Structures are given as C-alpha cells and as structure tokens.
Amino acid sequence: MEDVKGFDNITKSTMYLLPEWLSQLTEDKDESNNDEELLVKLLENDGRRAIWNMCSTLGVDSNGVPGEACRLVERYLAVQMRNFLSMPTGSGEWEAFKRSLTSRLPLTMISCIQLASKMNGATFHVKAKVVRACLLCKGITFSIVDIVQSEFNVFRVLGYRLSLWTSVEIGEALALDVGMPQEMLEGVALFINISEYRRDRLLKRVRWAANLTSRSEGFNRTILRTLHLAAACVAAAARYLNFKGPDPLPQLAKLTRAPVCYLRGICDIILASTLNDDIINSTSPRKRKRDS
Q1: Where is the domain boundary, 112, 136, 157?
Q2: InterPro entries this protein is in (predicted)?
Q3: What would the pLDDT profile of 120-137 be if each residue is shown by its tens digit?
C-alpha cells in the first residue's frame, strides 16, 4: 500500500475529470488538511460508544451522524491542543487545561452531534430544547443557554467549517456511481457505520498492514481519509452482498484517485473484521450489555 498523502498531487491535477459532487468533496477535503496535519488522535472505543449512545438518545443515529460527530470532537480537541501548545505554559497550567477539557467533554460531544446532524438538512435539526429534554430523561442537566453557547463555541473553534457530507452519504453516492442498485445502499450504510464505530481499531490494522508492505516510517502516521474509507466500504458491501455487476474497485479507485491495491487492502480488513469479529452485533451498545 502507498501512503494516502501521495494521492494529493494526483487529485489536484485531475480535478476536472471528477464528477461535480466529488470535485466539491475533494475541495472540502483539501481545506481540512490543516486539521489532519495536527495529527488528530481518534476517539477510542469508550468515546465512540458514548457518542453513539447520545445520538440514539437524540434520535439522530442514522445517515452517518455519529461518525461525523466523532470527527468533529476529534478536530475540536486537536485545535484546542494546538492552541494550548502554542503558548508558553507550565506543568500546572497543563493539568488545569486537561481538567477544563475533561469537564466540558460531555457538552462538547453534544454540540458536535448537533452540528453533525445539521449537516444533513432540516430533517435532522435538533433544537436546544429537545436536547435538554432528552438529556433530562437520562439524568443529565444542562441549561438551554449552556447548550446554545457550547454549540456556538465549538463551531467557532472549528473555524465555522463543517464537511459537506457524512461518510454514509459519500458511500451511497459512490455506490450509485459504480452502478450498485438502490436496494444495496442499506448494506453500504451498514458497512460504513460499522467501520466508523471501530475507526480507531481499523486505522491500527491499516497501519499494521501498510508497515508490512513498506519500509517508510511515514506509514506510522498514515491517515485513513473518510473518502477512502467510504470507497472501501462500498467495495466490501458489493463483495458481501454478491453484487452482480463488474468489480467496483477499479472505478472506485478512479473516482477517489487512490490505488486499487490500497482500497482493496482496506476492504479486506473491513470484511475480515466484520466476518471474524462479529462486529455487526457489537456496534449496538444495548446488545453489548448482555456480554458484560
């Protein structure tokens, strides 16, 4: 596999060959490079499960909202860390900074869920009153003012910029572009949601596989871009659901400007995780309770 960053120059030089929707998506991805260069640390299992639970409580756990909310939280924390490290500080200030971030984390997660849900249009718009009512049912108390102010503050820290589409929306558009039928889109969405839920572990496997095929130290910092994750999930769904058309991987590689072997590697990892680890059942926090 080759490092994803090596795709950037190719992508920029061939933008005019991409479908209009994908050109816009690629431009949006380029604008987010500064955040990715912060070496964003992905939320781990407990954090991702917490966001999935919150999304379920608020009724916005579909259409890729939980995965996008995770990315917004990761970006927010990375920007806050960059801002803190840019100032001369002592060890005492570092501890105070960590305590402050930790104490605000639940409300920050809620704000990121609100922002992610708004990306998908008015259908998923969640008002502060609804958020407060849902949280009260869970024994969590925040005022409407707290919720509104936190959402604006998070949006400001993120540079007033959100992605154009969630990973599920990207995957569904790619699936249609490569000729997959409408009835397979639900399977595509399921594979993407599974992969988003386990994205931290999936990235570790991708890096491990990359290090087996390359001696470059840069692979330890390989970034698994959402566009490539979605494309690999489309390929995984096509294989798992016995898509009768031609192999979509070459066309997906062309659309995303990624080597076929790179997408195939991610696809194989996703399928292995799904089939061998029974990931479909573990993505539901309610189902996991019976194992504890």
Answers
A1: 157
A2: Cyclin-like_sf
A3: 654 667 889 989 998 888
* Model confidence, pTM: 0.79
65: tokens are 């909202």
- Identify whether residues 221 and 124 lie together within a single domain: no
The CA dihedral of 140, 58, 67, 164, to the nearest 10 degrees, is -120
Nearest residue to 61 (alpha-carbon basis) of 104, 120, 106: 120
Give the separation between CA 231 and CA 175, rounded to whole angstroms. Answer: 8
Q: Establish if 291 belongs to a structural domain.
A: no
CA distances from 34 to 30, 37, 101, 215 (A): 8, 5, 21, 26
Residue 126, domain extent: 37-157
In angstroms, rounded to a whole number, what is the distance separating the alpha carbons of residues 142 and 269?
41
Residues 261 and 208 in one domain: yes
Examine the domain organization and report whether 128 and 202 are in the same domain: no
Closest CA to 118 of 160, 78, 65, 157: 65
205, 259, 209, 267: which is closest to 238 by C-alpha? Answer: 267
Q: Which helix H or strand E contains 147, and what residues bound it?
A: helix 144-157
Co-location of 106 and 141 in the same domain:
yes
